[in-house]
Automatic annotation (TrEMBL), chains A, B:
Keywords: ATP-binding, Ligase, Nucleotide-binding, Purine biosynthesis. One of its GO terms (cellular component) is cytosol. It catalyses: 5-amino-1-(5-phospho-beta-D-ribosyl)imidazole + hydrogencarbonate + ATP = 5-carboxyamino-1-(5-phospho-D-ribosyl)imidazole + ADP + phosphate + 2 H(+). Coiled coil: none annotated. It comes from Palleronia caenipelagi. The gene is purK. Gene3D superfamilies: 3.40.50.20, ATP-grasp fold, A domain (3.30.1490.20), ATP-grasp fold, B domain (3.30.470.20). Catalyzes the ATP-dependent conversion of 5-aminoimidazole ribonucleotide (AIR) and HCO(3)- to N5-carboxyaminoimidazole ribonucleotide (N5-CAIR). NCBIfam families: PRK06019.1-1 (NF004675), PRK06019.1-2 (NF004676), PRK06019.1-5 (NF004679), purK (TIGR01161). One of its GO terms (biological process) is 'de novo' IMP biosynthetic process. Homodimer. Pathway: Purine metabolism; IMP biosynthesis via de novo pathway; 5-amino-1-(5-phospho-D-ribosyl)imidazole-4-carboxylate from 5-amino-1-(5-phospho-D-ribosyl)imidazole (N5-CAIR route): step 1/2. This is N5-carboxyaminoimidazole ribonucleotide synthase. HAMAP family: PurK.
Amino acid sequence: MTKPLSPGATIGILGGGQLGRMLSVAASRLGLHVHIYEPAANPPASETADRITTAPYEDHDALTAFAKDCDVITYEFENIPTEALDLLEQHRPIRPCREALRISQDRLTEKGWLADLGLQVAPFADIKDAASLDTALERIGAPAILKTRRFGYDGKGQARINAPEDAADALASLNGAPAILEGFVSFTREISVIAARGLDGRVACFDPGENVHREGILRTTTVPATIPHSLATDAVLMASRILTALDYVGVMGVELFVTDTGLVVNEIAPRVHNSGHWTQNGCQIDQFEQHIRAVAGWPLGDGKRHSDVEMENLIGEDMDRLAQIAAEPGAALHLYGKAETRPGRKMGHVNRLR
Amino acid sequence: MTKPLSPGATIGILGGGQLGRMLSVAASRLGLHVHIYEPAANPPASETADRITTAPYEDHDALTAFAKDCDVITYEFENIPTEALDLLEQHRPIRPCREALRISQDRLTEKGWLADLGLQVAPFADIKDAASLDTALERIGAPAILKTRRFGYDGKGQARINAPEDAADALASLNGAPAILEGFVSFTREISVIAARGLDGRVACFDPGENVHREGILRTTTVPATIPHSLATDAVLMASRILTALDYVGVMGVELFVTDTGLVVNEIAPRVHNSGHWTQNGCQIDQFEQHIRAVAGWPLGDGKRHSDVEMENLIGEDMDRLAQIAAEPGAALHLYGKAETRPGRKMGHVNRLR
């Protein structure tokens, strides 16, 4: 299927979190229906999507019925079981492609693939056991971070090694999960590029944003990033190279470190990305609509920014400030409809024009 | 109830058309649920709202259950049967107020009320029969327009009288409905002010937009309007006076004619308005969120505009240009999810930054 979807067609989305929710809103704006597939009951996206299937990824009947109801399938997170994807793909195209998922699901595969593409990445090593960790620490040095190869997000599944004697505890904390050791990169700032590629192979990027993390969770993204124009161009070219190498269709988040020796790729996410939420208020066509346009085979927007923006995530107890934020005349609030506020839980974000 | 609604609360909306749809999206962005009440099956808003009741306005049980499920009730159109409103109001507050509905439901009442407030309106007369029409035509002169007092929209329920001999046919075309004769106003342009008033009595207005109609239907709204700054200020002050006089809570569309003797009020609509759709891409907080904020008791946004915008309605066969519009890099498309395209039917709109 290479023809653009017509209004009235249905996009299937695997995952019903806030990203699925905001994708649903963007799809409805283009007259497209959304069917969400999500194991958990009453997820954030259920409110804004047209249809929802509540079933586990092991339910073959539910997966088949879901696929048949959709014209194309996309996803809002990368850790989807391979068997479910195999089954879905028998019925409908999955965009972005399986290869992007395979690579980004595994930190070790991802680092290797990016390095093979000729891009700079942090020093890394495959960790199978205590012996390989010792060898890796000798080569990479401490401090370093031991991470599970799969299923990590927002700083989870990670242990910092400050000195070789921390190695055993760090390894034990991962409970035997396959792991990767990553060396620290000495960077001045972290930026990210939200890039999109259409079915026609055209690439469009939003301006790089500058990210600030705290406790492993993104706190703010500011555009424009305080980097020279030449570096912004480099970042966009690198992102474009990654998408084109994958024959990618959709939006990807590419996180980069700014270092003295140029840009180092931190990680890629084959989906809309928290650091791209500023586009909702800084651009005519935001990252969510851009992703929907790509997977629906529509022409992409050009990514042009009309305003400078600071995006602030509202996490856990940040919700105590809600009344105050709601009273800021120029603050665009985006809440995710989550009933329960928990420490570390992303409840919403606010975009402020600068 | 004067406390602001908390996220998780429910706003009831009477009417499930495109205005209800876009109000739903705005409410979900603030973490508020929406329950739509609409007699027709599968209306545009059903896709983006959390809950929907499909029942006629004469179904007292359905109305009562709907009201009890909501924290506050608002509406997307003005022709709601009085009896239904009486019943709903026994259970929950209706915002904007009943008085605004009573006045705007009837062209004659509206013109009289605006004139009593000291605002300029077109010459008008109550038409009960052929004799009163003759008398009115003598005073007001031809050309003039005979309109039904109630239930008119988008140019429907109107007959133009070019000369006294057209009077009988014009009157017959209204099938005996109570009518008003309105004289023509010689105007250079039509503008509208989208004004909002909060529970706290504060008023915020968006910049006046300049409207172009064709065949009685709005085609484009452009901001800023090409009028002197002093006139823009007058328009905003007039709108503010109307809202304050009504102790209004919510967004109102105020249509004004620009004439040699100043601004003449054409009509008021006690709801979000087609001529305010540009705010979706020209402002941080658009008319839909502004209305939701008002009826939810939240502080209003300030109405500040960050970009110049032209809004174009997509009506009937305009949908043939969809592929072309989708390919304009800076065109923000908003479709209403209507399955069937019909001549004269509003299918969507597009906002272009200028």
